[in-house]
Amino acid sequence: MVDVGGKAVTSRQAVAEGFISMPPELIATLDRLKKGNAYEVARLAGMMAAKKTADLIPLCHTLPLDKVKLHFESEADRVRVTCTVACHARTGVEMEALTGVQVALLTLYDMGKAYARDMVIGPVRLLEKHGGKTGSWQADAL
Amino acid sequence: MVDVGGKAVTSRQAVAEGFISMPPELIATLDRLKKGNAYEVARLAGMMAAKKTADLIPLCHTLPLDKVKLHFESEADRVRVTCTVACHARTGVEMEALTGVQVALLTLYDMGKAYARDMVIGPVRLLEKHGGKTGSWQADAL
Amino acid sequence: MVDVGGKAVTSRQAVAEGFISMPPELIATLDRLKKGNAYEVARLAGMMAAKKTADLIPLCHTLPLDKVKLHFESEADRVRVTCTVACHARTGVEMEALTGVQVALLTLYDMGKAYARDMVIGPVRLLEKHGGKTGSWQADAL
Amino acid sequence: MVDVGGKAVTSRQAVAEGFISMPPELIATLDRLKKGNAYEVARLAGMMAAKKTADLIPLCHTLPLDKVKLHFESEADRVRVTCTVACHARTGVEMEALTGVQVALLTLYDMGKAYARDMVIGPVRLLEKHGGKTGSWQADAL
Amino acid sequence: MVDVGGKAVTSRQAVAEGFISMPPELIATLDRLKKGNAYEVARLAGMMAAKKTADLIPLCHTLPLDKVKLHFESEADRVRVTCTVACHARTGVEMEALTGVQVALLTLYDMGKAYARDMVIGPVRLLEKHGGKTGSWQADAL
Amino acid sequence: MVDVGGKAVTSRQAVAEGFISMPPELIATLDRLKKGNAYEVARLAGMMAAKKTADLIPLCHTLPLDKVKLHFESEADRVRVTCTVACHARTGVEMEALTGVQVALLTLYDMGKAYARDMVIGPVRLLEKHGGKTGSWQADAL
């Protein structure tokens, strides 16, 4: 695990996004499946996973997150998930935002898999990050 | 968590795949980055994450996995990850295979992020599953 | 941890219940708080906690649960939570049912604590258990 | 998870209490049960659980606790548990104190359940909290 | 993680032992340190760690342990810890027994470190294992 | 858990070392076993375990580690592991360094156990620690 001891504790933020393709009929009922409201379950799973990032990604530092926020938007045949994470720390929260998105997407898959097995996850990517020595960075449009 | 108590304990298997796009120069050095061999770190992270699936996906059952195997193939500008999981249980291991792939991909991202921030993860999907009441299923070619 | 190796793997079930007292105005809005739907958050928290029982209670065995189900009923000035757990194992799931109730109640407290700090949790108790050498047991009416 | 990034890092403290009713004969032997000293097991379980609060309660922030202290008092037919938690953080430790009490009570139940299944947990509540924007708060007498 | 799916579920057992050297004055007070009874804390820590073996050792399978038992013996200038683990599974519990011993020894170190920093842990080794294809094995005398 | 709230947040460091004896033929192939490169697996296991110290050792505080570094040296008939940990915190990281070494040693055992069961772990000890009220400390030569 890279030594971040010489870096300053500063305010850090990162936003990641990801998609999962689904049949429109499934998207139409995601908020009232027999197993529950898929958005709500995915929101909590993503939030809890972001807190566990250092337990999942071997070289990640344990960071005391200030904020984790997931947002869901349904499109015609896919759902978009974004995860915003903020922290005061010696290193950034990009992996936390990406982990939140990935586990939220996995959870949407799990909630829907009784209806469709061929859902496809992706693209998943970092949208922006702020703070730290390298400052702000923003992804190009896809 | 859906009641699986009435289902039989049978042999179950699932295979998932996923991709991460990366600059060719990064792919060329993934096995000897300053932080370590990215494939080896991702392999272990994926394996350990597959074992933690029920701790990440709220409605997943805790399953005593018999086997978790990750495989990596580098292509010109992306890396392909597959995860094969097997188990004797009352429910399938699709989510375990997908979780193994997702966390391996996240770990590749983490290992490479000092060199490129605009890597994109996906598509990630289930390739096949065997066992259980619904028997075998195979994904169509993408 | 007591040796259960000599016991038979049989079907086990347990139901626990618990209460949290709250101001009626808070109960009236629990399903649409600014932080989310408190019932849904508590349901998932209780379910995930039941799966972690052996990690919380030192002498509990790790059991592969078949089912965890939480149920919420709002009364005039309190909310009732029940948790039903089922398993095929060498020992019972009483602690899993109680843990599910306790963490669901804690989560309701957490969701409501911006509105009222003097909520009181209890009584929490085992309602019934089935299976194993001692067979079925049912609590007396309180 | 609510954004606490704008709050100041200050010294925070919370105390929670809880009870479990038990047959007097069981209380008399709690410190020398066949499974061990129930107070000692419950003390450690409560302490370790307080450290895991953010892993149990979905919207809780991960906090680096400075202190966790559990205390047990046996009365005629019940045991009283208090848990005191302190921290320097951007948000309070009320949930950590309550979680410590709840898991200590569950552990007492687990230690005693071979002797009595009808033990009842409760009332469990916050006794006091200090620090943060809202300052000190103290519960009314029950 | 090696595929154990083709192996039979049989009764497995393993015993490991380990030592920690300590000043005799510290050993004399281990059961009543200011921080608690070191044996009791180490016993619970070892037990809980044995249950977490698959979360610590990357290639270990998650096994539903039937029994974990720790035993402590104080000698003139060291403490001996043994850990016995039993399970019905497709693979053995050697790593679980060793992990139980290692974490119990670490905990004894933690309990005593305010009094002596130069305590030395070891030797730690497997004493015996039973069950599985390779049957019983016993360590030679050291 | 001892109250460290009154202590200052300062830079802390600790180094621990440990050994595992192995047959020379096994040492010669540790980096290319059928199960993988044992050093790489042990390195990651030790790193991840150091981050989990507070979850393993009951009275340890949760610390946001700045750095965890493992190093392996093979000798004629044993492997030496060192673990260096650094942190800005109110208490030291001795237990984190020792835990990293212990779990790395356990993992080497696990990787090699198909070839030799009589490997012996130890001696394991703290080599040095810096920072905090008591300042620097260094172990005597063994």
Automatic annotation (TrEMBL), chains A, B, C, D, E, F:
<dbReference type="Pfam" id="PF01967">
    <property type="entry name" value="MoaC"/>
</dbReference>
<dbReference type="InterPro" id="IPR036522">
    <property type="entry name" value="MoaC_sf"/>
</dbReference>
<keyword id="KW-0501">Molybdenum cofactor biosynthesis</keyword>
<comment type="pathway">
    <text>Cofactor biosynthesis; molybdopterin biosynthesis.</text>
</comment>
<keyword id="KW-0456">Lyase</keyword>
<dbReference type="GO" id="GO:0061798">
    <property type="term" value="F:GTP 3',8'-cyclase activity"/>
</dbReference>
<feature type="domain" description="Molybdopterin cofactor biosynthesis C (MoaC)">
    <location>
        <begin position="1"/>
        <end position="132"/>
    </location>
</feature>
<protein>
    <recommendedName>
        <fullName>cyclic pyranopterin monophosphate synthase</fullName>
        <ecNumber>4.6.1.17</ecNumber>
    </recommendedName>
</protein>
<dbReference type="InterPro" id="IPR002820">
    <property type="entry name" value="Mopterin_CF_biosynth-C_dom"/>
</dbReference>
<dbReference type="InterPro" id="IPR050105">
    <property type="entry name" value="MoCo_biosynth_MoaA/MoaC"/>
</dbReference>
<dbReference type="GO" id="GO:0006777">
    <property type="term" value="P:Mo-molybdopterin cofactor biosynthetic process"/>
</dbReference>
<comment type="function">
    <text>Catalyzes the conversion of (8S)-3',8-cyclo-7,8-dihydroguanosine 5'-triphosphate to cyclic pyranopterin monophosphate (cPMP).</text>
</comment>
<dbReference type="InterPro" id="IPR047594">
    <property type="entry name" value="MoaC_bact/euk"/>
</dbReference>
<dbReference type="GO" id="GO:0061799">
    <property type="term" value="F:cyclic pyranopterin monophosphate synthase activity"/>
</dbReference>
<dbReference type="InterPro" id="IPR023045">
    <property type="entry name" value="MoaC"/>
</dbReference>
